[in-house]
Amino acid sequence: MINTYIPEIKNGTSQNFFLMAGPCAIEGEEIALRIAEKIVTITDKLNIPYIFKGSYRKANRSRLDSFMGIGDEKALKILEKVSRTFGVPTVTDIHESHEAEMAAAYVDVLQIPAFLCRQTDLLIAAAKTNKVVNVKKGQFLSAGSMKFAVDKIVDSGNDKVFLTDRGNTFGYQDLIVDYRGIPEMRSFNVPTVMDCTHSLQQPNQTSGVTGGKPALIETIAKAAIAVGADGLFIETHPDPANAKSDGANMLQLDLLEGLLEKLVRVRQAIL
Question: N or C terminus: which one in the chain shows less Cβ crowding within 10 Å?
Answer without folding.
Answer: C
